[in-house]
Amino acid sequence: MNDINNINRRKFLEYFGCCACGLIIPSCTTAPITERKQLRLLPESTINRQAAQLYENVKRKTKLSNDKKQLDEIKKIGLKIENSVSAYFDSVNKIDPTQNFHWEYILIDNDKIKNAWCMPGGKIAVYSGILKITKNKHGLANVMGHEIAHAVAKHSIERASRALILNVGTTAIDIFSGGIISNASRTTGVDVAGMLRTFGIDNPFGRKQEIEADYLGLIFTSLSGYDIRESIKIWERMKEAYKGQEPPEWMSTHPSSEKRILNLKNWIPEIILKYPPIEKSQ
Ligand SMILES: [Zn+2]
Fold first, then answer.
1. Residue 14 appears among annotated catalytic residues
2. Among 120, 150, 237, 241, which residue's CB has the most CB atoms within a 10 Å radius?
């Protein structure tokens, strides 16, 4: 039975995988800049709408920080990245992948979590715990650049589309078809952390997507005028912070920090030259 399922699944993938672009054109796109082929079966508007609802839940259910100065810095960096991404795609006559984004930023008061994320549509959260790793505006800009790159490259749409095809993402399908989050928003005591994981936000993306987010993140951070060499220091500090302990789940499935640092070192000199700070013309 399993074998038959596997064969059918493989056949199905042959028909609907990304190679079948002639059959279903709208579902086959490429990631910006890297031109990596992507499968997108779900409309961006649906995913952005669901993400915005989940973001509202996060804002209600988690403890937000009162540190206005820090939040202002996050917003300032974010705005620079927003403008630079749009200005870059304008400058190369490409459609701005963030044209339907409604950017928003929150700082979550949780010193234990060394993480940040950006939901589809530009809904960003930074946990206070990662600020000890980022240390300065350049560090923070590099982390935000990476997270924003996941959203710009529409990694969540790709991931949900894959889940649909592989038939393993029942919850993901429920979420993207609208059920779970609207129900959850009516109930009290919602497990926001669980929903974030299911939604694929507070959860590692695939290896290819992580590498792509590292690469695009450097580009967006450099276009925004921040020092991308700081990205290497972040990964060194991250390694140090988890010395002798089990790394958090998202780190262990990410590319290893050594491999990551090596990639960054290879890309940085070229990216600094090719993607200098860009000013958005008003
Ligand atoms: Zn990532």
1. no
2. 120
Distance 8 CA to ligand 1 centre (A): 32
Write down the catalytic residue from 73, 147, 158, 210: 147
**CA 259 remoteness from chain centre:** 20
| pLDDT tens per residue, range 16-43 | 444 444 444 456 789 999 999 888 878 8
Ligand 1 (ion): which residues have CB within 5 A?
Answer: 210, 213
Ligand 1 centroid distance, CA of 37 (Å): 18
Burial of residue 272, with CB atoms counted within 10 A of its CB: 0-12 exposed, 13-18 middle, 19 or more buried? middle
pTM of the model: 0.81
What are the pLDDT digits (tens) for 143-189?
Answer: 999 999 999 999 988 887 776 666 554 555 555 555 555 455 444 44
